[in-house]
Amino acid sequence: MPLASARHKAEDAPEKIIFIPHDNRPISDKQTADVVRKLGYDVVVPPDDILGNRTDLGHPDALWQWLDENAKDAKAAVVSSDSMLYGSLVGSRKHEYSEQEITDRAERFTDFRKKNPRLPLYVFGSIMRTPRTGEASGHEEPGYYRNYGADIFRYTVLKDKEEVEGLTRREKKEVEFLEKLIPKQSLADWMGRREKNFHANEYLIDLTRKNDFSYFVLGRDDNAPYSQTHRESRHLQEYGKDLGKTRYQAMAGIDEVGMLLLTRAVNDLEREVPFVFVRYNWGRGERTVPSYSDEPIKNSIADAIAAAGGMAVTSPEKADLVLTVNTNPNGKTYEANDRANDGTPREGTQYFASIVEDYVRAGYPVGVADIAYANGSDNAVMQELKNRGLLFKLRAYAGWNTATNSTGFVLGSGMLAKRMTDGAVDDLLLTRYLDDWGYQANVRGTIARQLTWLRGDGVYGSLDAKRDAVETRASRFMTRFAEDNLPPLPELSDLRVTFPWNRMFESDVLLADEN
């Protein structure tokens, strides 16, 4: 029996962990909480109506009240500062709060610590992202970003580069041109929002110094080697450098940080320091700088291991998790919905599958971080793992969204897997295979190309009148995918796909016992 389960069975009730995610997307909310629930913990999450979603930026004051009410009997709390200050991750980008309102909410952390002096409090926030284009922003930035997003992104690239290495004469002229091209009011609004966020993050680092937080992480998402996000991260890293990685980190990624800090909370409660051995595909491997990131994946993985309370080791023999990382030998990251992701083996496919197989056959606990493609699985590698009978011999898997989202999530869930039953591990694997492989890498692209066939108004980013029809079609396609690729499990008998954020980018795949 796993350690956690054995301990909880001897008690009247499972130990309670508070989790306030940065919004109610399935991956941010229930899928993350479910990993720790598999250990036997009671992970309590605020009700949906006070969490942020795509159209409701969230209710920070209601979240503070909920946190206060639930803290008394909790063993640990993992909390999104974006939710507590702005309402949600999207709220941090689109809110209309004054700097004073934000500061007042941040000060409530000190009051909370005084009321709950012994409660371990793990906090994660975000350094505002810098999408490359208006289209890439997904309607999650102010309206003007749709028209001037690419120009704003380029402007911040140059301003960041100016600080790091200086600009050429041509680049200086480009800055002048962009300052004239981008409406002054729009640029001032966007930079003003960032300034509020930056000052709030400085204040949260100060709270970490005062020991109000047990651990604090600032994640940066939709980033690039030069950008405003990278620029602010450099300054915030410098601002908190005295704290060290045992108390504070500014790291790549954001959506996976809730998983990492829940893992850290459990590891601290159980006094565990999991050992992690990392193995990459051949080629550029650890030097790969994935899309949506500003650093080599080796650095991101090292930060994620530290954030989760683990330790990197140099050999697999004593590892609690052998993390195999599916990178492309050429160091590039492609998009999962590209037509090229059709399951045809590529350079490195067989080699990587053999790495996984060798470690599994040797009896090591293996996790797969599938990051050759962003926003979905590598169909060629997944088919190879399926053909070799390895899918349900892994201990963890992730292939969703950005590379750091996947590596962070699989690290967190993989570190905890040794304390789970085999059935619990299989349940978590099934969720990832359906979501990351089935939906993200296959069904999503197919239906996106068929949207014009469906009646009513609606597009990929706002399904609207087409939503019911898309859900019906997606459910049918996913059922077929499961029949073709997964064992005939009872929970797959009534599979349904929904779109809680009214867009196709992410789905909620419901199994028979959830319908």
Write a structural description:
The protein has 515 residues and is an alpha/beta fold. It folds into three domains: 3-132 and 187-269, Rossmann fold (3-Layer(aba) Sandwich), CATH 3.40.50; 275-419, Rossmann fold, CATH 3.40.50; 448-515, no CATH class. It is built from 17 helices and 15 strands. The chain has helices at 3-9, 30-37, 60-70, 81-86, 91-94, 99-115, 145-164, 169-181, 184-209, 228-239, 257-269, 297-307, 349-361, 379-387, 403-417, 422-450, 467-485; strands at residues 16-20, 42-44, 76-80, 121-127, 215-220, 248-252, 275-280, 311-312, 321-326, 334-335, 366-370, 373-374, 396-398, 496-498, 508-510. It has a six-stranded parallel β-sheet, with helices on both faces. Helix 6 (99-115) packs parallel to helix 9 (184-209), helix 12 packs parallel to helix 15 (403-417) and helix 13 crosses helix 14 (379-387). The longest helix is centred in the last third of the chain and has 29 residues, at 422-450. It is globular and about 55 Å long.
Question: Could you name the key traits of this structure?
Answer:
single chain, 515 residues, alpha/beta, Rossmann fold, 3 domains, 17 helices, disordered N terminus
